[in-house]
Write a structure and sequence with these properties.
alpha+beta, Aminopeptidase, Alpha-Beta Plaits, 9-stranded mixed beta sheet, 4-stranded antiparallel beta sheet, 16 helices, globular, disordered N terminus
Length: 470
Amino acid sequence: MTLRFPQFPLLLLCFCCSVIIAHRDEDPVTKTMEDFSGYPIDEPHSFFQKSLSLLSVDTESLQKEIDELAAFSDTPAPSVTRILYTEKDVLARRYIKNLMGLSGLSVREDAVGNIFGRWDGHEPELPAVATGSHIDAIPYSGKYDGVVGVLGAIEAINVLQRSGFRPRRSLEVILFTSEEPTRFGISCLGSRLLAGSEVLVEALKTTVDAQNRSFLDAARSAEYAKDQDDLSSVFLKKGTYSAFVELHIEQGPLLEEEGISIGIVTAIAAPASIKLEFEGNGGHAGAVLMPHRNDAGLAAAELALAVEKHVLESGSIDTVGTVGILELHPGAINSIPSKSHLEIDTRDIDEQRRNIVIEKIQHSASKIAIDRGVRLSEFKIINQDPPALAEKTIIGAMEAASKELNLKHKLMISRAYHDSLFMARVSPMGMIFIPCYKGYSHKPEEYASSQDIANGVKVLALTLAKLSLH
């Protein structure tokens, strides 16, 4: 029987190394095994020591790709606006699929447009290691948010291919659909579905955008969801991936201010979103005297201050709250507001602590309504997602990669939402942050230097290599 060494498990090679080392010089079988595996048997991870100099990022091409992708925008440069399933979004998706193909990845798409590019390992039956992010962009934003994690992931694969690395587990790059909630009000739409959200599947059957166009109609216009209304085909089984790692700009100023190249995320704070409305009597701004008013606008203002108070009372810097939307009706300078609408975002890495803040907000809203003689006509929790912790083994791989590349790093928390939050429900998860100028994000001034991006890509590439061999 002829042995087929290309399929010989590297794990077994590592297991046997103590037996083989003593006979290495005179054993031709060992040399043959090394030739096929690509790694010395007595030092199976020597790739990471001897090939660091070969991890070369093509920064010029990568920046060119970032700039070219930014051109698929509905607003002029330097801003980027790329909304789900619009013409520019479809063209940007085509651009990414072409790059995946040029990198030798096999490309597939699911029913909502999550895009997967796969580099098969020599044990493709094992759960793959995945990486990726998103390319949709809110109106008048920048060109790095999400994009660095997609184009950077493709370049990380190129880096490994150029270095001669051969993965054991397959490596997969994912472009997630609609991380931003711009069109249909649902953040991380693609990754939520991958994580198996039955609630979202049902909601999308009746979800419409501001122009009253249904989600399914918009998806079909982009040639997705063509043959089915059942989007549960998108669901991934838990354990589909052995690990998921996302590269992203920090969207905060800490790394730049502290002169640190790499942030290693240990946890992602999850938000709860609340909608509520007060209703009062309204009336003429001059004719209704102050003691006789039931001002829905002042009720909203008082609650906004209460949100700040309850967040600060948590005693943790990781608890945050924001009244992002406050609308008054009828919205005239000489009319007492008869209605007010608020939307509140509160986040924490501690789910219980965040939920206590929500309870306090609800209690304050009810009390304010009574005190001011208005009605709390709506109090609705839109979403209440649990936070996610990064997997210790992935944190260890990212730390080791940073040290081997002589890049200063720090452990940190992500207070922004990412697709990794939902991928944590499918597989162990980790995130790599790189500095961005003044922490700017979601605005045209968003910027990450080519050197910082290259550092992130190298850490990602080395981390993927380590996890692939695990």
